[in-house]
Design brief:
alpha+beta, seven-stranded mixed beta sheet, globular
Amino acid sequence: MIVTPEDRSLRIVTQSDHAHLAGEIAALWRSDALPENPRRADIVFAAREHDNGWRETDSAPWVDPTTGRPHDFTDLPDGPRIELWRRGVERYAGRRPYAALLICRHAEELLGDRRGEEPWDEGLFERLDELVEDLSEETGASRDQVETDYRFVALADRVSLALSARWSEPFAVCDHHGRVDGDTVLFYPFPLAGATSFTLRCRSIPDRRYADPVDLIGALAGARWTEQTVRLAPAGSAFPATAEGA
């Protein structure tokens, strides 16, 4: 989950809803030769499903015993994080091998600094490396091709994350620059046909200490879903940016 404090509440966006927004952004991408890319359908699919392993985790969220608040996607403990990423890289390997390869690339990008740590190597990276080798052979994709196509997944993910988490700082990814202004990301160079509105589903729960996961799940079950309108609009030019992680 993406957890953002707001006044005396916590704004909750599930990873699935964040990823759905990323997929919508990728589907409307008009620059960088994406519309003509013969693998466009798999690229858009990977953008929409890049966080698919969180599906089960967000349906039974964890509470940080120290703070009593729900774990954000940035601070989930290693055990469940390894489990969800293993699920995520394997889910579509049989049905959408090239999209699965792009999702594996996303896992490498996000989690590469954990290589060499025993629970991560045995729990995830041994399987991830095996999958990448098998999927690369099955699809015939070169590393350069994967890098070129993954760029779109990374861009869509970062824009969606900036909107979902309401980043306060400018960000940069793949030679593009963005800045959140209210419910709008101002982006340069601009990749869509024009300023575009999207819908992001979210909920708000009280910002209080939750006794355990059952207490948190009860609060989430009683929270009203809302559909927030968010926008991607062109910035006049590039601006200084600091990159934030996904």
